[in-house]
Amino acid sequence: MQNQMSFSPGKLILYYKMELAKHILNLNKYSIEETAVYCGFSGVANFSRKFKQEFGLSPSAYRENGLITGFKPEDWKIPLSNECFNKLIQLKSEYKWLAKLLVIIIDNLDNEAFSIEILSNKLFMSPSNLNRKAKALFGFPAIRLLRDIRLQYAAELLMLEKKSITEAASLAGFFDISHLSRVFKQNFNCSPSKYKYDNNVFPFVDLLRKEL
Question: Is the pTM of this model over 0.70?
């Protein structure tokens, strides 16, 4: 029932209203009051409340500062870098849902049964709505975001904490060594055992945990 409601016409209409509102605010030709009326909101207070719920800042703050743009394909890649970390911290300060998402992911890194369905439920969203938001910021769905953070954490466990591959697989939420090895090699272009001795890694997940 909850998933059906998340696909309701009302939610779709609100999404398009918000996109139209952003466009009008960017033009900087109309007042906040005029923007609220033009986009079909019942008043400025209602418009401002819903806008802040969606984007984490008021319409006036958006007009003044704009939303931080999301990641470009070259910005987010394994292994995750210092620049990538700084960008993510900026984004989480503007998008409350993203800050909550990161806390939930970090708290469940060692839970191999953790899924996008569980994540979206904890965020009070449907999986499709979560993926829409993730794609808008990262260019890919939430499942990849979860996977990449787990992979990065596994690399940090291997390099920085000198964990065994078995320990890294367990602590990063992979089913077993073979599962970690297969996904690791696809993204790092080498096996976990080779990476452990031949590479350096930025402490992305460790620093992120301290920021949340």
Answer: yes
